[in-house]
């Protein structure tokens, strides 16, 4: 008889992290930081994406290249490495680097939820501790197919990762036709999301925004996905995937995105601020 998995917790650089087993799904774990959900990982089936925002990032990655084709990916923000594990399973041979600022958090995840490291050819997942922007600035130009920014200090995206200067660093790291994707969160009146869309539009000629209809209408707080590229994004395929998901979402691009942005100006380092805090109880769990 095997021991049942039990929750584990540890004080990290950014708060108190807790790994809790999902009693309804063998091999699945929830990572929280100060009570705010950060990641959900299924060790038995890494293609299972529980959270709505990870499913949207998964759909985006699925649509960017033919099925199974390896990608060179930089993940800014690690958590429990949900998306890196997904891509390792769906696109074997991908070279992935994860940058997580919270070293003790990364150690906790490595100890209890280990992942496949890189092989001699560099395929696999390499995780390092560091600041996302510093790591991005040190990358060789044109070295990545996909850059994913999913950085939350607790429940807020740090200001220095929200500016035109930051997005330009991401653009420089991408190969021609590569994609930059940012997972953000905002609520009524969507001032932060509009400004972030304006920021990505100032750098990339092709941009789309994805969110639940209720979030787009300014009725509630929720996740917002922004994607930018130098090449046309597969918008029709993505719109179909997002609309048909168990967490349906709308894709906004072109003139509709311009109308949503309105007069919002791109954010610069000089005026950047952290993303707005969620309303009380928006994401907290025990």
CATH level 1 class label = Alpha Beta
Structural class: alpha/beta
Strand order of the largest sheet: 7-6-5-8-9-11-10-12
In helices, the fraction of residues equals 25-40%
CATH fold-level label: Rossmann fold
Overall domain count: 1
Number of strands: 12
N- and C-termini, Cα separation: 28 Å
User: Which regions have little confidence, pLDDT < 50, spanning 5+ residues?
Assistant: none
Short description:
This protein has 286 residues and is of the alpha/beta class.
Describe this structure in words.
- This protein is an alpha/beta fold.
- The chain is 28% helix and 28% strand.
- It has nine helices and twelve strands.
- The protein is globular, with a radius of gyration of 18 Å.
- The two termini are 28 Å apart.
Topology (elements, then pairings):
Layout: E1 8-12, E2 15-21, E3 28-33, E4 36-42, H1 52-64, E5 72-76, H2 82-90, E6 95-100, H3 103-112, E7 124-129, H4 132-137, E8 144-149, H5 164-173, E9 174-186, H6 191-201, E10 206-211, H7 213-216, E11 222-229, H8 235-243, E12 250-253, H9 254-261
Parallel strand pairs: 5-6, 5-8, 6-7, 8-9
Antiparallel strand pairs: 1-2, 2-3, 3-4, 9-11, 10-11, 10-12
List keywords for this structure.
4-stranded antiparallel beta sheet; 286 residues; alpha/beta; 12 strands; Rossmann fold
